[in-house]
Write a structure and sequence with these properties.
single chain, mainly alpha
């Protein structure tokens, strides 16, 4: 019998055994081979002035480029920027300073220029700017930024430098203080005086209203004519941000009662969260029950079940909830029955007629569940899915088809029906003999 393998040592275990000279040699070698390690070593061992100088060099060399970045080059550039972002974040946490604020702002401005000259369809370039803005907020929250200078930069960045990011005055409130907020408000008014209304302008003014705690203005700005779910959602979320949960609940319930559409589920979620925070779990159950009766799905059923479990009444509402689900969402009904182990009932629902489409994924899930007790049914289901899958002649479909055949083989063995499966495979190979890629996959999988 082979000897058992010893547990793998952790890197810390190994480092603990090395002497200082060996560690120094290893770090030196790693720093020569990897620029990220060299940067980390220099930053760790430098004075404040030297660290800032090293960071300034990294920002100017790694966070800007004059070349156009295509889709793939953009991802590569964003990856290369990560060590610099992490170094700036670490410095913000350990050694915040006004000079560092200026440096981070410089990095943000560099990254925006890169976006303007690159392909950011994957969002990786914008992600770098968002990360840098997060570092900037973190750094300014330490109180090192001059409030009026910060307000000036925020307004310039939001309204002059670009038009796809904005600085949220709520997030900067502590750093701005009263003087900074006043200065920012005046700069917003000046910058937008002769500009057409835009999403950025509206959003910044909305955030200032949140900062002011101006409920009436927020309702006017966010709610509009209060004709859609989205308007009620925005008002309710603003009330939560103002720490007015009663108002948030009121607006959420009002939106639930007066609007329709898929976004209403967000209003239910807001209302349920407020009620849960209050500890009113029976009200949560009543709310979720009403939602399920209105928009029955496997998701709303799960919410009813969770709320009922929380108050100790499950499975009392189960049959009632299942009745709505069966009538409104047969697919969700089958999913729930399978989740709860009612395989026979799920099978009966799925096979009772052609009023709705079961779907390949659900059929396969049903076959796996049915396999334990009715392997012939499962085998036939798998083979039916093979037929549907191979209607499409491509390599991916062939891979899926072979995977399904393997499942069918497992069921055939359990049903003692391997002869039927072998006959089917022969027929399959004959029908698709002009698809060499499929035949090759069948051969490799042992279906000859």
């Amino acid at each position: 019998m082979a000897a058992a393998k010893k547990p793998t040592e952790t890197l810390d275990d190994i480092l603990d055994r090395l002497d200082e000279a060996t560690l120094r040699a290893l770090v030196s070698q790693a720093a020569r081979l990897h620029i990220d390690v060299e940067r980390a070593v220099r930053l760790s061992g430098s004075s404040a002035d030297m660290r800032l100088a090293a960071l300034r060099h990294a920002v100017d060399s790694d966070l800007r480029t004059r070349r156009y970045l295509d889709y793939y080059a953009a991802d590569e550039w964003a990856d290369d920027a990560q060590p610099v972002i992490h170094a700036l974040a670490n410095e913000a946490l350990t050694n915040p300073s006004r000079e560092l604020v200026t440096l981070v702002q410089r990095g943000i401005e560099h990254s925006v220029k890169v976006i303007l000259r690159g392909d950011d369809s994957a969002g990786s370039l914008g992600g770098v700017t968002e990360q840098l803005l997060d570092v900037h907020i973190l750094l300014c929250s330490t109180g090192v930024a001059d409030p009026v200078e910060l307000a000036t930069w925020m307004a310039k960045f939001t309204f002059e430098d670009q038009d796809f990011f904005e600085c949220d005055p709520v997030l900067y409130a502590g750093a701005l203080g009263d003087d900074g907020v006043s200065a920012f408000r005046a700069l917003v008014d000046k910058a937008t005086a002769n500009k057409p209304d835009s999403w950025t302008v509206r959003h910044v003014r909305e955030r200032l209203a949140v900062l002011d705690g101006d409920v009436d203005q927020l309702v006017t700005m966010l709610g509009g004519d209060l004709s859609s779910q989205h308007q009620f959602i925005r008002v309710a979320e603003a009330m939560l941000e103002l720490d007015r949960p009663d108002d948030a609940l009121s607006w959420a319930l009002r939106g639930i009662d007066s609007t329709t559409g898929w976004q209403v589920e967000e209003l239910y979620d807001i209302a349920a969260a407020v009620l849960t925070e209050r500890g009113d779990l029976r009200a949560v159950l009543e709310l979720r029950g009403g939602e399920h009766e209105r928009w029955a799905s496997s998701t709303t059923y799960a919410q009813v079940r969770a709320a009922s479990v929380a108050v100790g009444t499950w499975p009392g509402p189960r049959d009632h909830a299942l009745g709505f689900l069966a009538a409104r969402d047969p697919g969700g009904y089958v999913d729930v029955l399978l989740d709860e182990g009612d395989v026979d009932d799920a099978w009966a629902v799925a096979t009772k007629g052609d009023e709705w489409k079961v779907g390949a994924e659900r059929w396969e899930r049903l076959a796996k569940a049915r396999e334990q007790t009715h392997p012939v049914d499962a085998m036939n289901l798998y083979l039916g899915l093979v037929e549907t899958t191979l209607e499409k002649a491509d390599t991916r479909a062939y891979g899926v088809g072979v995977r399904l055949l393997k499942s069918a083989k497992r069921a055939a063995i359990a049903a003692e029906a391997t002869a039927d499966l072998e006959s089917y495979v022969l027929s399959l190979r004959e029908r698709y003999r002009r698809r060499p890629s499929l035949i090759e996959k069948l051969d490799k999988a042992g279906f000859r």
